[in-house]
Amino acid sequence: MFFSGDPSTRKRVDLGGRSTKEGDARKLLEQTRMERNRRLLQKKHNSAALKIQKFFRGRRSTAIVRSKVRRDFCETYGDNCQNVDRHCFEPASSFLPQFLFFFKAQSSGDFVMLVETCRLLRNFAHSSGDILSLFSGLDYSTEHNTVDFRVKKLAFTCIEAIHQNSRECLRDQLLVTPEEATISTAILMDAMSLLLDPKLPWVCKIVSHLQKRNIFKLVREIVTTAKEGSRSPTMNGSILSLESVLFLVVPHVGREPCCCPVVDPRWSFSSMILTIPFIWQLFPNLKVVFANPSLSQHYVHQMALCIQKDTHVLPIDTNTEFPGNACLLGNTLEIANVVLSQPECSLDMAIDIASVATFLLETLPPIKSSERESRHSSSEEDDDMLIDDVQELVLNRTLEQQITTNAIDSRFLLQLTNILFHQVSGGTQSYDEDKEALAIATGSSFLYAAFNILPLERIMTVLAYRTELVAVLWNYMKRCHENQKWSSMPSVLAYLPADSPGWLLPLVVFCPVYKHMLTIVDNEEFYERGKPLSLQDNRLLIIILKQALWQLLWVNPLTQHNSGISVSNDLSKKNRVDLIQNRVGVVIAELLSQFQDWNNRQQFTSSTDFQADTVSEYFITQAIVEGTRASYILMQAPFLIPFTSRVKIFTTQLATARQSHGSEEIFAGNRFRIRRDHILDDAYNQMSALSEDDLRGPIRVTFVNELGVEEAGIDGGGIFKDFMEKITLAAFDVQYGLFKETVDHMLYPNPGSGMIHGQHLQFFHFLGSLLAKAMFEGILVDLPFATFFLSKLKQKYNYLNDLPSLDPELYRHLIFLKRYKGDISDLELYFVILNNEYGERTEEELLPGGKDMRVTNKNVITFIHLVSNHRLNFQIRQQSSHFLRGFQQLIPREWIDMFNEHELQVLISGSADSLDIDDLRENTNYSGGYNAGHYVIDMFWEVMKSFSTENQKKFLKFVTGCSRGPLLGFKYLEPAFCIQRAGGSVSNEAVDRLPTSATCMNLLKLPPYQSKEQLETKLMYAISAEAGFDLS
Q1: What does the record list as coiled-coil region(s) (predicted)?
Q2: DSSP H/E element including 844
C-alpha cells in the first residue's frame, strides 16, 4: 500500500469485463487500414509523378523536334519565306506541313512567317485566279484529304494568331479593311476569306473545323479587344476584313447545299456575336447578310428553342452596363425591323422574334424616358416592379436607346402585329384555330413584357394609332365571347402553362391600349363617330369585361393579391399566371372605370351594366372587414357593387370612426363661439387651431347674433348642422375669391386666388378639412363641384374630354385645330398660353422654349393636350393639393376611391331630385297624442306636398338642421323624424303658437291647428323666419 520503489506500471484491469485481446484486434485493424491507405496514396503520387515526367519529356521532345523542323524550314524556304513559290502550296510540298507543325502564335518570328505566307497566298491566288489548283495541283479528288486538312488548319491558324496577339501588338490593327493591304491582320483575314470562298469544295470542312474550335468566341474576344483600343473603325462604306470573314462563315447553318453540323448554341453566332453591343453599327454589311429570311429564321428559331427548353446559352457578363441579354435584345430588335419588312417573312418567323424578345425583355429593369409617365397615371402605382436582383442592373443609356427605339418603332410594331394577327384580321372563312391562338398569345406576351419594361406612353401611342391592334383583338375577343369558347394557351408557348385561361393575354394587352385611346379621343368621336369602337361594341365590351373581372376577383380569385409585376425570369409558370391574372384585374378595372366616366358625361349604357349580378348581403358584410376578398374588390373595382351598397359601407365606416372619437356624446368635444356676421373668420381661426384628432371629435357651436348676444339653444347636433351649412355657403361663395364657377355654375378652385388672399393655400387646406368634416358627420351641403375638380380628390389626371366642363369655348377651338385640314402653321400659333386673371394678362410656355416653337400639323395633337393639361391640371395644382391634404385629414383616400366623381358629388350634396315626401311620411314617428291617422297629421302632409321644392328644403332644415335628406332615404335619418303635439288642448293660446323644432332630435313640435290654411300659414312663417335658434 506504500511506495515500494518499483517503477513498473501495474497491470490495468478493464472493469467492463472486456478482454484486452479485443482492443488489440481493433487497434491492429485500424493500423492495417491506415497502412493500406498510405501505400495507395504513395502509389498515386508515383503515378502522378510518372505522368508529369512523361508529359514534360513529351513537350521537351516536341519542342526539340519543332526547333529542328523550324531550322530545316528556314534553310529550305528562308527566314521570311523568300524561297517560296506557288508550287510550295501543292500536296507534294512539305512547306505547309512543316510550317503548321512548328508554328506558335506567341512567337513573333513565326507570326511574321504566317503573315508572309498569307501575303504570298494572296498574290498567287490573284495572279492565277485559281486557288483550288494552288493547293491541290492538277487533281483535287485524289488529294482532297491532304488538301482539306491543310487548308482548315491554315484558316484556323490565321484567326488564332490574331486572337493570341490581339491584346499585345495587334490591339489597334483588329478592325481594318482590305484596302489597308500592308497591315498584318488585314493580310491574315484576307487569306481566310480566300480559303472560305463558297465556290471551293472544302469550304464546309473549313467552317466545321472553325466552329468546332469556337471561332465565334474568338471573334467576340477580338471585337471586344478592338473596342477597347484607341483606334476606331473607319466607317467610309468599306467592308471590314473581319466582317468579310463572318460573311463567309455565318451562312453555314447545315441546310442544303451546306453540310456543316449544327453548332452548340453556347458557341453559336447568336450567343457569341449578337451579344456584342451595337454589332450592326460595327458590321453594317453583315446586317444585310443576316437579314436573309432563311438565315435569320435559323438563328432566331435556335434562340427560341433554347428559351422553350430553358437553356442558358448567353456568355457570362463582364460589363454591367452592357449585359449580354440586353445587347442580344437590342441587336435582335434592330435586325427584326429589317426581317419583318420582307415579303418572305413568315408567321413562324414573327412568332420566334416575339418569343425571343419577350424572354429577353423580362430579364431587364424597367426603362422610363418620360417625365409625365413618372408624374401621373394611377395605373403606374399598380405597375411598380417587385424588387428583384435584376432591378439593380443599370443599362448604358445608348443601349437603352437602341432597345427602346427599335421596340417602339411604329414600323416594327405595325409589321409584327400585321404578321401575327393576319388570320384574325383577315376574316377568312377557314383558319387554323391553333395557329391563331399561338399568334395571339405570342404577340400579347411580347406586348405585355414591353408594357412592363419600355416607356409606356410612347408604346401606347404607337399601338393605339399606328396599328390595328385594338380592332384585331376586339374581333378575336368578340368572336370567342359569342362562341362561348376561348382558346387555351398553346403548349409551345414557354411564357405560360398550357392550361392557362385563353383570355388572359389578350385582355392584359387590349385594356391598357384601349384605355389610352379613350384618354385622347374627343366627345364627338366617341359618342357620334363610333371611335375607337361603336357604342354598341362598347356596351358588349363592358359586359365581357365585367364578367371577366368578377370571375377573376370573386369566383376564382388569387390567394394573394398584389399589383406588382416581377421581371425575373426565374419565376415559375404558376407565378406567371398569378401575376398576369392580377394585372388583368387591374387593367380591366381601370378601363371599366374610364367607361363609367364616359357614361356619366353622356349616358350610352345602363349604369347596372357595370354592376355584378350576384352581390349579396354576405358580400356587403365582408367588404367592411379589412383583408377579405370583398374588401379587395371594393378597393379595386367598386363599380361592381351597387351604389347604395357602397353608401351603406361608407356610412358604416363613418359611424365607426365617429364612435371611436366620441362624436355621439352630446356634451363632449370642442366648443366654437361663432359670430353670425363673421362666420368665416371665426370658423377659420378656431378650426385651424384643432389637431387632426380634435377635428375628428365632436364640435359644439354657440351662435352669437348681430347684437353680440348668444342665441338660445343647446347644440345637440342641430346647431352644428346649421353652422356647417352656413359656413360652407360662405366659404365656397365665388364672391370670396377662392372658388370660381364654370358656365354650368359648378365650383372649382380659382387659379388666381393668390392675387386676392395672401394665405390662400392655408384657406384651401381649411376648406378641404371643412368639406371632410361635413362628410364625416354625415351632413349634406349644397356645393355643386366641377367634375374635373372632384377628380383631384381621387388624385386622378384630367384629359381633353374633361375640358368642356370648364371651358366649352376653348374645347371647341381645340377640336377645330384637331380637325383643321389646312396648314396649321399659317395660324401663327406657338406653344404658349395666355392667362387673364383680374385683368392681368400673363404668357406662359407650355414647353421649354415654347414661345419660339410653332404649332404645326405634326405637333398639333401635343399642343391640344398640353393646353388641356394646363387648364385642367397645372393651373389649379397648388390649390387642389392643399385642399386634398385638408380633406384627407378626416376622409382617407380608400374611402373616397369607392366612388366615381358623379357619385362623390351625390355623397357631398345628396340627390338633385326633389325631396320624397312620401318616403318621409313612411319613416315618421308620432307622440304627444298624434298618430298617423290624426286629422292634424293629414293636414300637415297635404301642406307639405303642396310646398315648392325650395320650401320643402326650408322645412327640412328647420326640423333637422340640414336642407338635404339622408343619401339612402329617410329610413336612415338618425334619430327618426318625429312630430310631437304642442299644447295640451285645442285652445286659442295653443293654436296661436308657431311650430318649433329640436334639430338635435329631428323633432317637430306642431300645435293642433284647426284648419289647413292656418297650419300652412304658421308653418311657412316658422320655416322662413330665419331667426336662428331663438325661435326654438
Answers
A1: none
A2: strand 840-845
* CB-based contact 960:999 (threshold 8 Å): yes
Of 113-122, 374-383, 498-507, the one with minimum mean pLDDT is 374-383
Residue 827 in any domain: the answer is: yes
- How is residue 456 written as a grid cell? 409606356
For 459, the domain range is: 433-559+569-610
Distance CA 773, CA 764 (A): 14
Q: Name the H helices within 678-779.
A: 679-688, 692-696, 718-731, 760-776
Positive or negative torsion for Cα 787, 792, 796, 797: positive
In angstroms, the CA 648 to CA 411 distance is 52
Element (H, E) at 699: strand 699-704
Residue 1032 near residue 982, CB atoms below 8 Å: no
415 domain residue, yes or no = no
Domain shared by 581 and 491, yes or no: yes
User: Number of folded domains in the chain?
Assistant: 5
Q: Are residues 892 and 954 in the same domain?
A: no
At residue 987 the predicted structure's pLDDT band, cuts being 50, 70 and 90, is low
Is residue 301 assigned to a domain? no
* SS3 annotation, 454-480: CCHHHHHHHHHHHCCHHHHHHHHHHHH
Dihedral-angle region of residue 427 (phi above 0 means left; psi in -120 to 50 means alpha; beta otherwise): left
Give the CATH number, domain containing residue 1013.
3.30.2410.10
Short-list 488, 522, 523, CA closest to 502:
488
Distance CA 75, CA 684 (A): 109
- Specify the residue for cell string 429589317: 338
How many beta carbons lie within 10 A of that of residue 605, not counting itself?
Answer: 18
pLDDT tens profile 504-559: 888 999 999 999 999 888 888 899 998 899 999 999 999 999 988 998 888 777 65
H or E stretch at 755: none
- List, edge to edge, every strand of the sheet that includes 977-981: 924-927, 977-981, 1003-1006, 996-998
Label the pairing between strands 977-981 and 924-927. parallel
Of all residues in the chain, the percent with pLDDT exceeding 70 is: 86
User: Do both 581 and 637 map to the same domain?
Assistant: no
**Same structural domain for residues 209 and 119?**
yes
> What integer pLDDT is reported at residue 788 of this predicted model?
92
pLDDT of residue 495: 55
Q: Roughly what angle, to the nearest 10 degrees, separates helices 504-520 and 469-483?
A: 130
Judge if 99 and 195 occupy the same domain. yes
Q: What is the pLDDT of residues 213-225, one digit of tens each?
A: 999 999 999 998 8
**772 shares a domain with 745:** yes
Domain contains 84: yes
Cis peptide before 198 (omega within 30 of 0): no
Query: Pick from 910, 941, 959: which residue ends a domain?
Result: 910
pLDDT tens-digit series, residues 859-875: 898 899 999 999 999 99
Respond yes or no: is residue 1000 known to be catalytic.
yes
What is the pTM assigned to this prediction?
A: 0.78
CATH number of the domain encompassing residue 743: 3.90.1750.10
Domain limit, last residue, from 883, 910, 937:
910
Distance (Å, rounded) from C-alpha 566 to C-alpha 508?
Answer: 15
CA nearest neighbour of 785 among 602, 880, 909, 868: 909
Measured between alpha carbons, how far is 221 from 224 in angstroms, rounded to an integer? 5
Give the contacts of 389 (CB within 8 A, at least 6 positions apart): 568
Amino acid at 534: S
Task: Quickly state the pLDDT bin for 386 (edges 50, 70, 90).
Answer: very low
Is residue 992 classed as helix, strand or coil in its secondary structure? Answer: coil
Q: 483: which 3 cell numbers?
A: 362562341
Is the dihedral angle over the CA atoms 366, 367, 373, 375 positive or is it negative? positive
Taking only the tens place, the pLDDT of each residue in 632-664 is: 888 989 999 999 889 888 988 888 888 887 655
Residue 225 contacts residue 231 (beta carbons within 8 Å): no
Asked whether residue 885 falls in the same domain as residue 992, the answer is no
